[in-house]
Amino acid sequence: MCLVFIAFGYFFSLALEKNPIGIFGIITISGAIGGVVTSLDTDKYHELSIPLTGKILPSGFIGHSFIGVCGAFVGVGAAILFTPLELNVFINNIKDHSTIENSNILKTLIITIALGIIGGFSGLPIISKLSNHALKKIESKVNEHNQQLERQAETQKIQNHKLKNEQEKNKQQQQEILKQQQEIKEARDDLEYNRGMIHIANNDYKSALECFEKIEKSNAYINTPKFWINRAFAAKRTDNVSDAMSFIDKALKIAPNNIYALYNKLCYSCLLGKEDIELLKLYQKVKELNCDPDYTKIMEHIKNDKDLKKLKETDAYKRGQED
C-alpha cells in the first residue's frame, strides 16, 4: 500500500515536473515509519477478512504501517485546513508561478485523500450510529404504537366487561320477568282451578269441565293426581264415563297407588261393563292399601256406592263380605 501512495505521488510529481518522490512520498514514508514504530511498541495486530473465503489473515506490521500512512495524510490534510501550512516547502522552484498553482492543487488533493481516509475509518461507525438512531426512533414509534394498542385493548377489555355485566344484568332481568310471568300464569291457573271446584260444589259440572280444560297443560296441574280425579268426577257427572276413565288413568299414571283414583276407576269400570276379573283385581288393589289414612272411608263408599252394582254381584265379592 505504501508503494501505491509512492507511485501515485511519483507520477503526480512527474506530471508537475518535480522531484519524483514529492510530497506524497514524504507523507507515505513518514506514516509508514510511524506505523512500524507502533507495531514495535504493541502486541496487538489487525486482521483482514479475505473475500469469498471467510478466512481471517493477520496484517502484522503492514497493517500498522498502512494505518500510519493514512494517519499521516489525515494529519497533513488537517494541518492544511486549520493551520497556515504551505506545501511550497516540499516543492522546488518556489518562485515559479506554476509551483504555487501546483501547491494549491496538492492541497486540494491531500484534503480529498484525507477526507476519504476519514470516511473509510469512520464511515461505518457514523452509519451505524445514524442507523442506531433511526432504529431507536423506529423502536420508539413502535413502542408508542404498541402502548396505544395496549391502551385500546385495555379500553376494549373494560367495555367488554361492562357489556358482559349489562348482558348478565339483562339476562337476570329477563329471568325475573319470566319468573313473574310464570307466577302470574300459575296464579291464573289456580284461579281457574278454584272456579272449577266452585262449579262442582254448585253441581255445574259442565262449567267445571270448561275451567279444567283451560289448565290441562298447566305445569302446576298436569302432574297433579287430584286435578285429574276432580276432572274425571265432573266428566262422570255429565255422563261422559269414557272421558272420566281417560282422566282417571292419567291420575293413576302419576300416582299408581292413589286410593281415590283406584276407587273411581273401579266405579267407572263397573259402569262401562268391564269383565268381572278386571273389577276384582281393582277391588283387591284397593283392599291392599289398608294402611292409607282414607282406607276406611273408601271402603265405606264402596259398600254404599250404587255404581259398583256389577262388582257386588260377583261371587268373590259376596264371599268376601260373608267373611
Q: Strands, helices and their partners?
A:
Layout: H1 2-15, H2 22-41, E1 47-49, E2 56-58, H3 60-82, H4 97-201, H5 205-214, H6 225-237, H7 241-254, H8 259-271, H9 276-287, H10 295-304, H11 309-312, H12 315-322
Antiparallel strand pairs: 1-2
Helix pairs in contact: 1-2, 2-3, 3-4, 4-5, 5-6, 6-7, 6-8, 7-8, 8-9
Describe the structure.
This protein is mainly α. It has helices spanning 2-15, 22-41, 60-82, 97-201, 205-214, 225-237, 241-254, 259-271, 276-287, 295-304, 309-312, 315-322, and strands spanning 47-49, 56-58. It is rod-shaped, with a radius of gyration of 61 Å. It is built from twelve helices and two strands; from the N terminus they run H-H-E-E-H-H-H-H-H-H-H-H-H-H. The model has no long low-confidence stretch (mean pLDDT 79). Strand 1 (47-49) and strand 2 form a beta hairpin. Helix 6 (225-237) packs parallel to helix 8 (259-271) and helix 7 packs antiparallel against helix 8.
Descriptive keywords:
single chain, 323 residues, mainly alpha, two-stranded antiparallel ribbon, 76% helix, 2% strand
Report Rg.
61 Å
Low-confidence stretches: none
Instruction: Give the strand line-up of the largest sheet.
Output: 1-2
Structural classification: mainly alpha
DSSP, total strands: 2
Short description:
The protein has helices at residues 2-15, 22-41, 60-82, 97-201, 205-214, 225-237, 241-254, 259-271, 276-287, 295-304, 309-312, 315-322, and strands spanning 47-49, 56-58.
